[in-house]
Specification:
By secondary structure, the chain is of the alpha+beta class. The chain folds into 2 domains: about 180 residues, Beta-Lactamase; about 150 residues, 2-Layer Sandwich (Heat Shock Protein 90). About 50% of the residues lie in helices and about 20% in strands. It has 11 helices and 11 strands. The protein has a 6-stranded antiparallel β-sheet. It has a 5-stranded mixed β-sheet with strand order 7-8-9-11-10, with helices on one face. The longest helix is centred in the middle third of the chain and has 85 residues. The chain is elongated. The two termini are about 75 Å apart. The C terminus is likely disordered. The chain binds adenosine-5'-triphosphate and magnesium ion. Magnesium ion binds next to α9. The site of adenosine-5'-triphosphate has 20 residues, from α9 and α10.
Length: about 425
């Protein structure tokens, strides 16, 4: 007779085990196993409470009756009526009448469902995995004194069956949540980067449009004005003091203004870049800016990149050029170098490497690779441009230790711009 009863109980446990299989959600598991458990421990209310991974909160999953315990968000562990069990201070809790049992009712206790739903008899056992308490299994009955120590032992066996399953489920949920948070953060960052990139593209287009307008309209007007003034200055009937002291200096100033304007237009509209590519545009800029500086600077461009600069997305090409342009300008303006070397190289498969090296005085230490105090915007702009195309920018000393090296590396396969534009 006793053997038969044991057999039946064993079958119930196996039944619970079978019902667990394939369930991937806490609530569904409780619903699935509650009926089978009721054959072993009759109850009006069954709940499994699971601690959050940080051990500060817990959330309940119920069957039979719905209480405020199972409502999101997770509640603080310190307010749980079974906090002693969850903290490992008690190995089980058995109450004949939980409505009047002082263990469940303390200041700040979340015990109202016990009273509201007349949960009188209550038994609680911990869910343990590798000695750690991950939650508790609780059975309640409206009847007073419904449970004995035999029921506690049965509940322990059921808890041992459920605990590993819940542990795995909690770990999976946690991993899923972390992955979602991480993906969202990355998407936000990438969204900002792409937004800023679009803005830069629009600004670059606008800059080029202004450059063309200045060329076609303002420069043309100034040229006409300059010719008229020259003609006026050459008229012999005008008094000499007017031509020599007023008109000629005015003509010279105007010529200077036009020269400055041509320079601005040239920088705003990198035609060489558009027509011939980044390497030619860099070479053109080196040649022109060194010549204009009037300084005896030697320069060299070495391109061993095996054609990596050809076929670049226009935004990437313009950004690379602008960064090198500013690095060259800085070398000439601040470094007083004897030589400037621009090296374009392929460092690893798909990794474009550009270095602007000068042997001048070097960036002052106080600027720490960023704009020096009272310095301008150049280095900050270089960094922003590099970030927008997912390139790495580093400013330091060259291998010899003298001067400045601006290093830029760009993994071309992963350049998001290519995908965005395709
Ligand atoms: N190649 C270099 N050699 C020596 N000093 C440099 C070099 N590049 C930058 N610096 C120093 O770093 C400072 C910051 O450079 P940054 O390009 O940010 O500003 P800027 O050139 O002074 O002004 P802007 O670029 O806005 O016209 C410069 O003022 C200069 O002191
Ligand atoms: Mg600068």
């Amino acid at each position: 007779m006793l053997n038969q009863a044991r057999h039946a109980l064993f079958d119930r446990y196996l039944g619970i085990s079978r019902l667990l299989a394939g369930q991937l959600e806490f609530h569904a598991i409780i619903q699935a196993v509650a009926a089978e458990i009721s054959h072993i421990i009759p109850h009006d209310h069954l709940d499994v409470c699971i601690k959050t991974v940080d051990g500060k909160y817990h959330i309940a999953y119920e069957s039979g009756l719905d209480t405020a315990w199972s409502q999101e968000p997770p509640a603080l562990l310190t307010g749980s009526p079974i906090r002693t069990l969850l903290a490992g201070e008690a190995d089980f809790l058995l109450s004949e009448d939980a409505c009047s049992d002082p263990r469940f009712h303390f200041a700040g206790a979340f015990s109202s469902p016990i009273i509201d739903l007349s949960l009188r008899s209550r038994l609680h056992v911990p869910l343990k995995v590798q000695g750690n308490i991950i939650g508790a299994l609780s059975c309640s009955s409206h009847e007073r004194g419904a449970y004995t120590m035999d029921d506690v032992e049965c509940a322990r066996s059921i808890a041992d069956l459920l605990a590993p399953y819940f542990f795995a489920l909690r770990a999976a949920e946690q991993a899923k949540r972390s992955a979602v948070v991480e993906t969202e953060a990355r998407a936000r960052e990438e969204g900002l980067r792409l937004g800023a990139l679009k803005l830069t593209e629009a600004l670059e287009a606008e800059r080029q449009r202004i450059g063309m307008d200045l060329h076609d309209q303002t420069l043309a007007d100034l040229t006409r004005l300059s010719r008229r003034m020259e003609r006026l200055a050459s008229q012999t009937e005008l008094p000499a003091e007017l031509t020599g002291e007023v008109l000629e200096p005015l003509c010279r100033t105007l010529q200077q203004c036009m020269q400055d304007l041509r320079q601005i237009i040239e920088e705003a509209k990198p035609t060489v870049l558009q027509l011939f590519g980044v390497a030619e545009a860099i070479e053109n800029h080196l040649d022109r800016s060194v010549r204009d500086s009037g300084l005896p600077i030697r320069w060299r461009l070495a391109d061993t990149s095996d054609g990596m600069l050809t076929g670049l997305d226009p935004t990437v090409a313009i950004s690379l050029f602008r960064i090198v342009q500013e690095a060259v300008n800085n070398a000439i303006r601040h470094g007083q170098p004897d030589t400037i070397l621009v090296r374009i190289d392929r460092r690893a498969p798909g990794l474009l490497w550009i270095e602007v090296i000068d042997d001048g005085c070097g960036v002052p230490a106080r600027s720490g690779g960023a704009s020096a105090e009272g310095g301008g915007q150049g280095i900050d702009n270089m960094k922003t441009r590099a970030r927008l195309i997912s390139a790495r920018l580093d400013i330091g000393r060259p291998a010899g230790g003298v001067g400045t090296a601006v290093r830029l590396s760009l993994p071309l396969e992963h350049t998001a711009i290519l995908e965005v534009h395709s």
